[in-house]
Amino acid sequence: MRNSFPAVKSAQKLARSFLLWVARTFGTQLIDHRTGESIGRVLILPRKGKLAIFGLVKGIRAEFLPQTRLTYGLQELAFSVAPEPDYPNVRSTDSSSHAPRA
């Protein structure tokens, strides 16, 4: 019965909307390191060794950039847009578990 009250749900929606507005208005501009295109404005908050990224519309992939010196304390992190998955059409492929049609 947690958060079953309409007032709590509306307060959560309002807080989410406000956080996304702040992220997309005042956040940092995120650039795709491969193409140089703008991904969008985001708010990045580090928390317990992880990154919480607010304000994204696209799926992204984080990558470590190559370094000239091996100093692991100062590695640079870059982001790129993740490609859409290209799953094969399962219905059109043959499966060895079914008997062939004669």
Word description of this protein:
The protein has one helix spanning 6-26, and strands spanning 28-31, 38-47, 50-54, 60-64, 77-81. With 102 residues, it is α+β, with helices and mostly antiparallel strands. The protein has a domain at 23-85. Strands 1-2-3 form a three-stranded antiparallel β-sheet, covered by helices on one side. A two-stranded antiparallel sheet has the order 4-5. The longest helix is centred in the first third of the chain and has 21 residues, at 6-26. The mean pLDDT is 81.
Topology:
Blueprint: H1 6-26, E1 28-31, E2 38-47, E3 50-54, E4 60-64, E5 77-81
What's the arrangement of strands in the largest beta sheet? 1-2-3
Distance N terminus to C terminus? Answer: 57 Å
Number of H/I helices: 1
The unreliable regions are none
What is the strand tally?
A: 5
Radius of gyration: 22 Å
The backbone outline, from C-alpha atoms, is flat
- Biggest β-sheet description: 3 strands, antiparallel
Q: Bin the strand percentage.
A: 25-35%
- Compressed to H and E, one letter per element, the order equals HEEEEE
Rounded average pLDDT: 81
Q: What proportion of the residues is helical, as a percent range?
A: 10-25%
**Class of secondary structure makeup:** alpha+beta
